[in-house]
Amino acid sequence: MVIADEVFAGGPSGGGAVAVLEWQAWDGFLLAHVLGDNAVRIATDPFREFPSVQFERVCDSVTTVCFQINLSVRRRLPLRIRDLTNRFVERGVFAVNGLVQDIRKSTLHAHLEAIGLSSLKAAPSGSADEILFVKTDLNYGGELERSLPPENIAAGGLEHLISPEIGAYYYKTVERGMLQEGIWTDPAIVIEKYVTNTEDSFYRTYFSGKQVIIVKAFAPGMIKKLSSDPRDTNFVTDLESLKAGTDNLPISATLKRDVATFVDKTPVEFGCIDIVHDGHDKHYIIDLNLTPYAGTRVHDVFLTDFLRLGITNPPRRKPALSIRTPLA
After folding, report:
1. Which parts of the chain fold into alpha helices (H)?
2. How many helices (H) and strands (E) does the chain have?
3. Would you call 302 helix, strand, or coil by DSSP?
4. Which residues of 268-302 are buried (b: 16+ CB within 10 A; e: fewer)?
5. What stretch of H or E contains 254?
6. By three-state DSSP, how is residue 35 classified?
7. How many angstroms separate the CA atoms of 301 and 320, rounded?
8. What sign for the dihedral angle of Cα 45, 47, 52, 58?
9. Which tens digits make up the pLDDT trace of 119-175?
10. What is the 3-state secondary structure (H, E, C) of 42-95?
11. How far apart are CA 235 and CA 246, in angstroms?
């Protein structure tokens, strides 16, 4: 349901409803499947301040609010997501995905290094024939940012972060020696080491609070996407089990430790990460997504209910993190 004045007229008797401040990320997105009828959608413009009257209505009516803003960089948005998050918290409202302000790949590299995990960040120096992966620093090729009007691009501080040449399906592998020197300093581009394996598998991990689903997936393409391969397998667990090593899942212990470290030390309440590996137990997180897309097909109710607990059930939420990170 999309918010109208009468939605909150009954005050907090909404039966566990969660307010979702949503922009460009609802139909087909994972959060819509997870929350279902529990979601009170609030159409939110990230390029405007959040109305004070609406803020009061949210605080008086729900105990949880989710930020579902589909942009890679949020720190300069007029919506002032971090300040708004702090205001919600001061009023006793649990905020989901309000702290992280920058999920670009280069920022993810820095965060991984800060928490002791390996990244695929490539250096200009090295073997000239090493295969490297050239991508946009913004998620999904910066396609959504590219479509914004100029005034919004300026307001969000995105002017130099949008690549005019490389889109979501135009990532490419190139030998280091073939790269032009200027590409290494282009703020819209990130260059990573290219890692693959003989079975064309990768991992996608969904997490919501302490709830974790690790998907082993198979995709033959250079860009790894879920493709409903019949071999795809879901492994359902939680943060405590991963940290204690008591989950008994038939997947790499190294992978499980890496996932636990990331979920435990990253101030994100809901999202997903993509992980590639070399077939020799070396795993690398390559993407963080706060608004994962899930398609319009009907999803397994057990899995969506499992993830919902990380938002609506306080014992299944992650404790607040005070870790310093470039993501925030």
Report:
1. 30-35, 52-61, 81-90, 105-114, 143-146, 150-155, 239-244, 253-265, 301-312
2. 9, 12
3. helix
4. bbbbbbbbbbeeeeebbbbbbbbbbebeeeeeeee
5. helix 253-265
6. helix
7. 28
8. positive
9. 999 999 999 999 999 999 999 999 999 999 999 999 999 999 999 888 777 789 999
10. EECCCCCCCCHHHHHHHHHHCCEEEEEECCCECCCCCCCHHHHHHHHHHCCCEE
11. 14
Q: Are the C-beta atoms of residues 171 and 224 closer than 8 Å to each other?
A: no
In the predicted structure, residue 15 carries a pLDDT above the cut 60? no
SS3 assignment, position 41: strand
Task: Identify the residue with better confidence: 225 or 117.
Answer: 117
Average pLDDT over residues 87-98: 97
pTM: 0.93
Residue 99 CA to residue 113 CA, distance in Å, equals 19
Given a contact cutoff of 8 angstroms between Cβ atoms, the answer to whether 164 and 157 are in contact is no
Name residue, tokens 């609030």.
42
Q: SS3 for 320?
A: coil
| pLDDT for the residue numbered 166 | 84
Average pLDDT, whole number, for the chain? 92
